[in-house]
Amino acid sequence: MISASTGSKLAQLRAKTDQELSLIIDNSLESALELLNSSEPQRVRAQQAYAEAVKLLPKMDDPHERRRLKIKLAQVREGLKPLSTAAETQQAYSQRRDARHSACSQLGRGC
User: Fold this and answer.
1) Distance between CA 77 and CA 68 in Å, rounded?
2) 3-class secondary structure for 13-75?
3) Does residue 45 form part of some domain?
4) How far is 36 from 45, CA to CA, in rounded Å?
5) Which domain holds residue 40?
6) N or C: which terminal CB in the chain sees fewer CB atoms within 10 Å?
């Protein structure tokens, strides 16, 4: 059985680990928010920072800190949404254009 002293030390260690993990996640999300306002290549890094935060957040034990970070995570997700929508629109346009050109080629016509 774990003594009270050892249990207390483990609790202190867990609290310190949670603080450090919180700082890592917070820094990652802050970085993502800053990167969203920069050039296109930087936005890819923002997506990577967001993915890292999503992966680490479930490891947080402190419910208040987790809630705070989830709010910031939602802000980053919302910032990334227009990027995804724009990319999806461009991809759909390219697919329709390619399909149209392919159909014209099969019919022997230059459309």
Assistant:
1) 14
2) HHHHHHHHHHHHHHHHHHHHHHHCCCCHHHHHHHHHHHHHHHHHHHHCCCHHHHHHHHHHHHH
3) yes
4) 9
5) 4-106
6) N
Give the chain's mean pLDDT: 82
**Does a structural domain hold residue 54?**
yes
For 80, residues 6+ apart whose C-beta sits below 8 A from its C-beta are 36, 43, 46, 47, 50
Domain assignment of residue 111, yes or no: no
Any domain includes 39:
yes
Report the pLDDT value the prediction gives residue 29, as an integer from 0 to 100.
Answer: 94
Count how many domains the chain has.
1
pTM: 0.66
Going by C-alpha positions, the residue among 5, 1, 81, 4 that lies closest to residue 43 is 81
Q: For a pLDDT cut of 90, what percent of the chain falls above it?
A: 45
Range among 69-73, 78-82, 102-106 rated most confident: 69-73
Contact assessment for residue 50 and residue 80, using Cβ atoms and an 8 Å cutoff: yes
Token representation of residue 40? 């296109």
